[in-house]
Every structure is written in structure tokens, then in C-alpha cells.
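Issue 218. Parser rejects a valid record. Input:
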Amino acid sequence: MTPAVRIYRDGKGQWLRHDVTLHYSRPQARDVAMARVRDGKTVFVRVEDAAAVLEAARVTDGETS
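Output the parser choked on:
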């Protein structure tokens, strides 16, 4: 089992994080995850990469929070 963070958009379009445990897969590499959030997709990343990927998603959308 691998601790990870799910970075996703909620129903209002805001990017959020949710701590999860992956059982059958691995977190995505940081650069791959950043490319995917730029396309508006949900990603699973390592805990230590979550802040950078979430910030990249919010900057891409022009969010300030």
C-alpha cells in the first residue's frame, strides 16, 4: 500500500486534494502529473509532490486560493 494524494476538480471547478492509499497502482511522476492537470485531469501523486502539482493546477486555471 502506498500513501498518495488525489488532485482533482470538484463540481464547482476548484482544484482540491484528498489523501488516499493506493493498493494496486503507483502515484504518477511529478512532471507527468503536472502535464495531466494542465489538461484538467485527475491525478494521483506522491505526498511530497502534491503541493507543487496542486499549485500548478491552480495557476493554470488562474485561481488565487
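Fixed in the parser; the record now loads. The mean pLDDT is 91.
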